[in-house]
Description:
Low-confidence stretches: none
Strand content: 25-35%
Distance between the termini: 69 Å
Mean pLDDT: 93
Structural class: alpha+beta
Largest sheet: 7 strands, antiparallel
Number of helices: 7
CATH topology: BirA Bifunctional Protein, domain 2
Number of strands: 7
Amino acid sequence: MSAKIKLSKEELQLVQNAGIILTKNTIMQKVVSLFGILVEEMKDDLKKRSLPEELIIVSPKISRGENYQGLPYVMLDFPRLFSKEEVFAVRSFFWWGNYFSITLHLHGEYKKRFAPSLLENISLLREKGFWICQSDDPWRHELSADNYTPLSVLDNDAIAQIIEEKPFLKISAKAGLSNWEEAAPILLRFYKDLLSVMAQR
Length: 201
C-alpha cells in the first residue's frame, strides 16, 4: 500500500492504553446512575406541581451516546412530551469535557401556555444564572455565544422579543464538571426553579 496512516506520538500512547477507555466507560455508567438518582427526586417534586396530567404520567428516559460534536454524552428527559407540533421537556445533559446542563424546551401550545408566566417571573431565572436560546436550531445543546445568551445581559423587552419571534423556547443553566459531587443537587435546584416559574394558566 502506498498510503500510510500514521499516528502521532500522543495517539500511539493512547491506542496502547486500554485503561483510558475502561475508565471512560466507568464514568459514563456513573453519570447514568447519577441521573437515575436525580430523576427520583424530580418525580417527587413533579407530584407537587399543577402541570397537565399528560406530562406527569410519561416515564423518564435516560439515553447515552458517543458523538455530540465528537464527545460522549448522557441525557435525561423528564418530564418529556415530544410530538410534531408540541414539545414540553426538561432535559438534563452531561457533555464530556464540558459541563452538566439542564434545559426547559417548550414548543407549540405549551410555549403559548407557559411563556407568559416565565416572562413574568424571568427575574428569578436571571438571578439563578439561566440562559435563553436565540438560535434557530432547537436541537443544539451547547451554551455557546452563537446559540444562547445569558438572561443577565438582556432586559425584559429583549427577552420578550426572543420568545415572541421563535416557534420554540429554550431556557438553560449549567454546572461545571469539577463540582461533580454537587452536580445532582445543583441540577435539582435548577429543575425546581424552572417548574416554579411556570404557574398553570
